[in-house]
Amino acid sequence: MARSIDYGNLMHRAMRGLIQEVLTEVQKNGLPGAHHFFITFDTRHPDAKLADWLRERYPSEMTVVMQHWYDGLEATDEGFSITLNFGDAPEPLYIPYDAIQTFVDPSVEFGLRFETQDDEDDGESDEDEIEAEDTEDGAAPEKPAAGDVVSLDSFRK
């Protein structure tokens, strides 16, 4: 038996399970009402799948928007696949839940943030701008406000 309970990892697993449940529901029934998602993920994750040009443009992380147009959403136990529109070019993506850094639904001011030990050590943020222009009028969507983001730092030793 472990000498202590690893609450940080337990919370990460629970929060990723919540994302899986939400995406599974959206897969079955579509996005309800004004709900939409900003999902930031680590493009360096070994299981993340994205076009070479996207990986070159976003070498560390990328934020995608799931709102007006998306296709082929399939949530599995390990991650989800989806096709999003990047400047009128549909591109398939596969995002493992372990690669997700933030998941935000600004329509209800809900957000989750997954922080790693690496994030705390280097103190730098290499944030890329939102590029999946997924709005009806083609304008870039607004970046979500911090809102009610759950940070796991307070649970760490």
Notes on the protein architecture:
- This protein is an alpha+beta fold and 157 residues long.
- The protein is built from three helices and eight strands, in the order H-E-H-E-E-E-E-E-E-H-E.
- It has a five-stranded mixed sheet with strand order 2-1-6-7-8, covered by helices on one side. A three-stranded antiparallel sheet has the order 3-4-5, covered by helices on one side.
- Strand 4 (79-85) and strand 5 (90-96) form a beta hairpin.
Strand content: 25-35%
How do the helices and strands follow one another from N- to C-terminus?
A: HEHEEEEEEHE
Please identify the structural class as seen in this structure. Answer: alpha+beta
End-to-end C-alpha gap = 20 Å
Low-confidence segments, ≥5 residues, pLDDT <50? 119-157
What shape does the CA trace take? globular
Number of helices: 3
What is the strand arrangement across the widest sheet? 2-1-6-7-8
